[in-house]
Design a protein that fits this description.
This protein is α/β, with parallel strands linked by helices. The protein has 12 helices and 21 strands. Helix 2 (about 30-45) runs parallel beside helix 3. Bound molecules: pyridoxal-5'-phosphate. Pyridoxal-5'-phosphate binds near residues 57, 228 and 364.
Length: about 425
């Protein structure tokens, strides 16, 4: 997104034009930014056999999946439906990693018939896997290394009380099952939360995995999950991907030398690839002055972007319709009958009814977490690619709210109460 000649735009398309053409609320994604983030990550690990598996749950639109597939990415999926969507978007089974948690075992069985990589994250399933498949199907094991990645508690997944992965304290149990069923362990995996503060913290977490890896002689890869932080506001700490690339690459090369073979280095970024590409465009419905503050009310809410309310996430907000106006303090709130505050005491250029208000960094966990709460339609989605705008999802319509409802009170049933 850039401000040129007093107008905000993406690849020279004005945001006001997009808001007019597709109406609001609207998700807009900059395809160039997504591809550049992918390339940046690949380049940062130049010289290693790095493989990127985009975490599909961050933004699951088919066109986004295909865009990343064409850029060269693989994909990490967490449900059988995401897996089917990834196949449909063009990913080869060999480029798909299935990392479920607490799903029914039948989903894993189905995934195995589709020839994707399987990541197991509990002991009962590892045993079941052994009983059914023995060494005939390669398996990856998700380890919980008990590290506190720091940052937001709500997104930590690698601490001792976490529901994810098999505890590192249960290593012997894993090894017993592996030996009993002669499992072909092709990979070990860790995803320890999404908020690594520094490259050094990442590398020291990696060292734990290098130690674990020595117990599995037939590995082809180690999957380090994600943990890449992106800046949500100015001055925010973001992972220095180039520094991380250098440090991790040399640590990984040293490990491979000791291990005796060159393995693949896998990552599963979601936010890093798509967060900054996305904007949520809304329209100001009302300016509401109270004795306490001034609200900008917008035609969206936690039904479209729940991150601020769910994680306390910060999203920068700006007035597309008044790019150079005088700054005022505002609380930006949604139209849902809950306290759906998008931002408090923000400096935004003076707003009036009808102005286009944009929320930044809305690409990841925006649309994919959206709902119909308050019987509102989910927004449309637009992808900007090669300087053109493409509608990649239509806005919902009234019939979508009724779809799948079975209305039992009809003339035919003559049900009485
Ligand atoms: C969600 C998830 C990711 C992606 O996390 P980001 O913070 O979006 O980068 C990666 N791996 C697994 C297993 C996940 O569940």
């Amino acid at each position: 997104m850039e401000l040129t000649n007093g107008s905000y735009g993406i690849q020279s398309i004005a945001l006001t034009t997009l808001a007019e053409k597709y109406q609001t609320p609207l998700y807009v994604y900059d395809g160039e930014k997504i591809v550049n983030q992918y390339k940046r990550l690949k380049n940062a690990f130049d010289g290693t056999r790095v493989k990127i598996k985009y975490a599909a749950k961050a933004l699951t639109n088919q066109s986004i999946l295909t865009l990343l597939q064409k850029a060269g990415s693989g994909v990490d999926v967490v449900s059988i439906n995401e897996l089917q969507l990834a196949l449909r978007a063009g990913f080869a089974p060999a480029d798909i990693m299935f990392t479920p948690n607490c799903v029914d075992f039948s989903e894993i069985e189905e995934a195995i018939t589709l020839n994707v990589h399987i990541n197991i994250d509990n002991l009962p399933f590892l045993k079941k896997f052994g009983e059914q498949y023995g060494s005939s199907v390669p398996v990856c094991i998700r380890i919980n290394p008990h590290i506190d990645a720091g940052g937001n508690e709500k997104i930590m997944t690698g601490h001792r009380e976490s529901k994810f992965g098999i505890s590192i304290e249960q290593e012997q149990n894993i090894l017993d099952i592996v030996a009993q069923y002669k499992l072909n362990v092709e990979g070990i995996h860790v995803h320890s939360g999404s908020d690594f503060k520094s490259a050094d913290a990442f590398v020291s977490a990696a060292e734990i995995m290098f130690k674990v890896a020595k117990d599995y002689p037939s590995l082809s890869f180690i999957d380090f999950g994600s943990g890449f932080k992106v800046a949500y506001k100015e001055g925010d700490h973001a992972t220095d991907i180039e520094e991380l690339g250098k440090k991790m690459s040399s640590a990984f090369k040293a490990f491979c030398a000791a291990y005796g073979r060159e393995l693949e280095l896998w990552f599963e970024p979601g936010k890093f690839l798509v967060s900054e590409s996305g904007l949520l465009l809304t329209t100001c419905t009302v300016i509401k002055e109270t004795p306490a503050c001034t609200f900008i009310g917008v035609n969206s809410g936690l039904n479209h972007l729940i991150r601020p309310m769910m994680y306390g996430a910060y999203h920068s907000i700006f007035n597309v319709s008044n790019p150079t106006g005088k700054q005022k303090k505002y609380n930006v709130v949604g139209y849902i009958c809950e306290t759906d505050t998008f931002g408090k005491a923000l400096d935004i250029s003076e707003a009036k009814e009808g102005d286009i208000i944009a929320l930044k960094n809305a690409g990841a966990y925006g649309f994919s977490m959206s709902s119909n709460y308050n019987s509102r339609f989910r927004p449309a989605e637009v992808l900007i690619l090669n300087g053109k705008d493409f509608l990649i999802r239509k806005r919902e319509v009234f019939d979508d709210l009724l779809k799948n409802q079975v209305e039992i009170f009809s003339a035919e049933t003559s049900l009485q109460v």
